[in-house]
Amino acid sequence: MNDDGTASTPDDEGREDWRGEVPDPERIGHDRSRISDEEWDDLVRRIAEPSATTGDMPAEDVRDALEDTEHWEREPAEPIGWRTASPTLVLSWAAALGAVVLLLIGVIFFRPLPGWYLLIGLAVGIGGAVGLFFHLPSHRSADDGDGSSV
């Protein structure tokens, strides 16, 4: 039995209490890896402050000022997506991707795969690939540069 009333083990017999050897943080002295509380508070304050300067006017006021001085109006955004693409490009993509889906469904559900089903899937896929090939650009514009940028 130990002095504090806990049960002792055979390994504890030869050991001293290590808690007395732990240094007090106040007695460590000036350690270069430690900083004072004032320095820490200053670091935290500088991190919390925005590093970039912000404008004096909110964004809405800037828009109003631009509208008043320059008669600036925001243009409506152009629609993007498959609805603005050419119909043949959309059909080519649908055929190329649809052929893959068609063949996967056939492989999963039809055992063995009928020959006519395979021919239809391959024909649709090849037709979609040919259509996509013809939609590739045929020349470069001067604005494209040398191709080194993404």
Explain what this protein looks like in three dimensions:
The chain is mostly helical. It has a domain at 87-134. The protein is 45% helix and 0% strand. It has helices spanning 37-48, 59-70, 87-109, 115-134. Helix 3 packs antiparallel against helix 4.
How would you summarize what this structure contains?
The chain crosses the membrane at residues 89-110, 116-136. This protein is an all-alpha fold.
Give the fraction of residues assigned to helices: 40-55%
Order of helices and strands: HHHH
- Could you name the ranges where pLDDT drops below 50 across 5 or more consecutive residues? none
Largest sheet: none
| Mean pLDDT across all amino acids | 78
Strand content: under 5%
Radius of gyration computed on alpha carbons: 37 Å
Number of strand elements: 0
Please tell me what the overall shape is: flat
Q: Strand pairing plus helix content: what structural class?
A: mainly alpha
Euclidean distance between termini CA atoms = 74 Å
H/I helix tally: 4
Describe the SSE topology.
Layout: H1 37-48, H2 59-70, H3 87-109, H4 115-134
Protein name: DUF3040 domain-containing protein
Keywords: Membrane, Transmembrane, Transmembrane helix
Region (Disordered): 1-35
Label this structure with key terms.
150 residues, mainly alpha, 4 helices, 0% strand, transmembrane, membrane
